[in-house]
Design goal:
single chain; two-stranded parallel ribbon; alpha/beta; At1g61320/At1g61330-like; about 20% helix; LRR_dom_sf; 9-stranded mixed beta sheet; LRR_At1g61320_AtMIF1; At1g61320/AtMIF1 LRR domain-containing protein; 4 helices
Length: about 260
């Protein structure tokens, strides 16, 4: 029945909160710089974070959000995270309905907009079945764009669990167009292979058994579709100065660009 957590610790810099949604009253602890937040079985942690946290922890530099389910798109807000340099979003955490078919990945660009000094962005998506509209579903549809915004300081982007969802392709294209300082982009079509360097040693079975780490044949096929989406819609949009790292299923599907 907990409703409020209050902290008056003046030197608190790091806070991890996982549990049922409660009201956070930080007072002297409002200078927290590193926050991890996740809610048990409650949806829309991303929307909560962008609408509530700027006033609660205005001095954040690193924010990590764990979302069990997103049922509404990320909203546009007036308040900004003026100091956030590193944003990490985990969608999934073993809940099959974590990424609903109606969730618009492109709306995450609004979260990037709310972080004007952001330098790195990591999106990790764990799903057993990609149910979004595929970018290959209707070739006549144009890719959408969010106009009049720039991610001027964003240098490093990683999307782990990249898929062929049209809105995820649109998010990636939006970043490539508007992140004017981007240095590296990692798109790994295999969730669970970790972040950073793309290696077969963490995505295949023992001794190169050709058994992919991915949990189902459905997601192996989706990973191949995601590779096709990268080649068709993203590769030509990557500026020469940006290093593109692409990871697919094992047995020869791993690519370095």
């Amino acid at each position: 029945m907990l409703r409020v957590i209050e902290s008056t610790a003046p030197n608190l810099t790091t806070l991890d909160f996982f549990g049922e949604p409660v009201q956070l009253v930080l007072r002297e602890s409002s200078k927290v710089k590193n926050l991890k937040v996740g809610y048990s079985y409650k949806p829309n942690a991303i929307s909560y974070a962008i609408t509530k946290l700027p006033s609660i922890v205005p001095h954040l530099q690193t924010l990590t959000i764990y979302s069990s389910s997103e049922t509404v798109n990320t909203p546009m807000v007036a308040d900004k995270f003026l100091d956030i340099k590193h944003l990490n979003i985990h969608l999934g955490e073993d809940y099959d309905d974590a990424v609903t078919p109606t969730y618009d990945y492109l709306s995450l660009a609004l979260f990037l907009d709310a972080c004007p000094v952001l330098e790195s962005f990591t999106l990790i998506v764990d799903q057993s079945d990609m149910q979004h509209d595929s970018v290959f579903g209707n070739p006549s549809l144009f890719l959408r764009q969010i106009l009049q915004h720039k991610h001027e300081r964003l240098k490093k982007v990683q999307i782990i669990g990249f898929c062929s969802a049209k809105s995820m392709v649109e998010l990636t294209c939006d970043i490539l167009k508007n992140a004017t300082s981007l240095e590296s982009l990692t798109l790994d079509c295999v969730f669970g292979a970790g972040t950073g360097a793309i290696s077969d040693s963490v995505r295949c079975g023992p001794s190169k058994s050709d058994k992919c780490w991915i949990r189902s044949r459905t997601m192996i096929l989706e990973a191949h579709k995601a590779l096709g989406a990268i080649k068709t819609y993203i590769l030509e949009r990557v500026p020469p100065a940006v290093k593109l790292n692409v990871g697919g299923p094992c047995t020869g599907a791993k690519l370095w660009m």
